[in-house]
Amino acid sequence: MASSLLVLLDDIATILDDVSVMTKVAAKKTAGVLGDDLALNAEQVSGVRADRELPVVWAVAKGSARNKLILVPAALAISTFLPWLVTPLLMAGGLFLCYEGAEKLLHRFLHSRDEDQRHHAEHAAALARPDVDLVAAEKDKIKGAVRTDFILSAEIIVISLGTVTDKPFSVQVGVLVGIAALMTVGVYGLVAGIVKLDDFGLYLSRSISGFARTVGTGILRMAPWLMKGLAVAGTAAMFLVGGGILTHGFHAVSEWIQDAAVEATHVPGIGAVMGALTPMLINAAVGIVAGAVVVGAIAVFRRLRGAPASAAH
To answer: What is the pTM of this model?
Structure first.
């Protein structure tokens, strides 16, 4: 009986070790979605009164948890009963990532900064009107953020599932549950910190300590750049991750990339760097091209239907 217990404990330890390793792999694969998730959710809170920022983040976090309570069992059911569907879903998720990234890039080129600032000013003026129902506006903002989270969470779960399709069911459950919990707590914990960063900087800037005032002023200057940096990093990671998913979906392309990486290692002096960069650059290029093609196809479809080509997604 003692030996049976030891075997059971050993099996549990092995499963937990597999779950830990595969969760790290899945977290790396979903880095692009995570960066975008952070930027999008922090942006969703913009325009909310300062005293309502954290309650709104909490409400969206609860909605995100409900989303994952739906998505994780659905993903496990697909893996068990329709395993052939995992790869197409993974490819669709990768293509959607590329589309999101391309749409963001094209938005920057197609819309001037003055136009974006004017739109933001109009939005802020509308919220300041006394006849605007702020409670209803807040509820609409929360619903929109939860809908966006559902899409991003679905991408995270599908990408994570793609890393453990050949693993035992217990490992799949552990990885998906672990990723769901990690992403929910991590993303919305960071979002809460980001949206209150300017308040913290303002508090320090009013301190009687010169050092604290300096730190507070630095935080206030850094906060906008942090948001921009998150958005840029998230967009770049979308192309890298999305393009990587697409190239790995085609065995011949994946082998060609591996061969190209090996050839790049023979470049004198910088072979190691080129060997590491080559797959990333190819994946990013594939992601940009695929995303641009999808954006163009959607624009043509909208134009044929009579909808404005710049309709927001």
So the answer is: 0.66
